[in-house]
Automatic annotation (TrEMBL):
This is ABC transporter ATP-binding protein. GO terms for molecular function: ATP binding. The lineage of its organism: Bacteria, Pseudomonadati, Pseudomonadota, Alphaproteobacteria, Hyphomicrobiales. Coiled coil: none annotated. Pfam families: ABC_tran. SUPFAM superfamilies: P-loop containing nucleoside triphosphate hydrolases. Keywords: ATP-binding, Nucleotide-binding, Transport. The keyword Nucleotide-binding applies. InterPro entries: AAA+_ATPase, ABC_AA/LPS_Transport, ABC_transporter-like_ATP-bd, P-loop_NTPase. It comes from Aquamicrobium soli. Residues 3-238 form the ABC transporter domain.
């Protein structure tokens, strides 16, 4: 199974947020989407999950068009996601949050769901001990895991993760690397993940796409970050400039 984004564009009043971007993700693959703030990453994920309509281009799963169909039909069609700002039902328990998605999957994606149960999902994602606690009572890292478990309760063919390590402490994001790698065991579910934490992205992804100012500037294995001069300019160039502007110890010392 293959999710394919072909020449997709999106404009917001005078701003071209996404400019003719193409990418693909196969079943069982973990693909990263990186780029500076405002590069267009979330807008692209919003189009793949049909929260936003594309202005041009198309998005397909095995040739079947899945763009501009609305988020509910997209979820039923096999694409689930998490959000940059966690969107759990705060007053529902962990079990109830997962049950909402599970009920939809049982009705519309029974064969993809197979023998999966809510209990198994909670165990797999290390949240079983919080099953009867309200989502709002949980730590940030635990809420993230619940959100991923809920997305997986839709038995998706493709999972989109928008900045899963945001707000996590280091130990939590390392645990998340293992957990996301385990998703591929999920009946070969493909994963597209956005994150600013480059060590997390390079640990978890086989391939990376780099966006800058709405356009795709590079793609390839994680080594593309180191080896592609355009990417080095975007990341290292800006980082070096920021260090200079901030006058870090390193630069202060080198000036002495
Ligand atoms: N609803 C909107 N209305 C107007 N402009 C928008 C809207 N959503 C995004 N944009 C603009 O589109 C561009 C891309 O934004 P987007 O949020 O997709 O970037 P991003 O790469 O996800 O950034 P970040 O890493 O900060 O989340 C930015 O210039 C942003 O201001």
């Amino acid at each position: 199974m293959r999710l394919r984004v072909s020449d997709v564009s999106k404009r917001f009043e005078g701003v071209t947020a996404v400019n003719s971007v193409s990418l693909d993700c196969s079943a069982g693959e973990i693909v990263g989407l990186i780029g500076p703030n405002g590069a267009g990453k979330t807008t692209l994920l919003n189009m793949i999950s049909s929260l936003l309509d594309v202005d041009a281009g198309e998005i397909t799963i095995d040739g079947r068009a899945v763009h501009n169909i609305g988020p509910r039909r997209t979820a039923i069609g096999g694409i689930a996601r998490t959000f940059q700002n966690i969107r759990l039902f705060a007053n529902l328990t962990v079990r109830q949050n997962i049950e909402v998605a599970f009920t939809t999957a049982r009705r519309h994606r029974a064969s993809a769901l197979g023998s999966v149960t809510i209990e198994r999902l909670m165990e797999q994602w290390g949240v079983a001990e919080f099953a009867d606690r309200k989502a709002s009572e949980l730590s940030y890292g635990t809420q993230r895991r619940v959100e991923i478990a809920r997305a997986l309760a839709l038995a998706p063919d493709f999972l989109l993760l928008d900045e899963p390590t945001a707000g996590m402490v280091e130990g939590e994001s390392q645990d998340l690397v293992k957990a996301i790698m385990a998703i591929r065991e999920w009946k070969g579910c493909g994963v597209i993940v956005i994150d600013h934490d480059l060590s997390f992205i390079t640990s978890v992804c086989e391939r990376i796409y780099v966006l800058d100012m709405g356009s795709l500037v590079a793609s390839g294995p994680p080594s593309v970050l180191r080896d592609d001069p355009k990417v080095a300019e975007i990341y290292l160039g800006r980082k070096a400039r920021r260090r200079l502007e901030e006058g870090t110890d390193e630069h202060r010392q080198s000036r002495q």
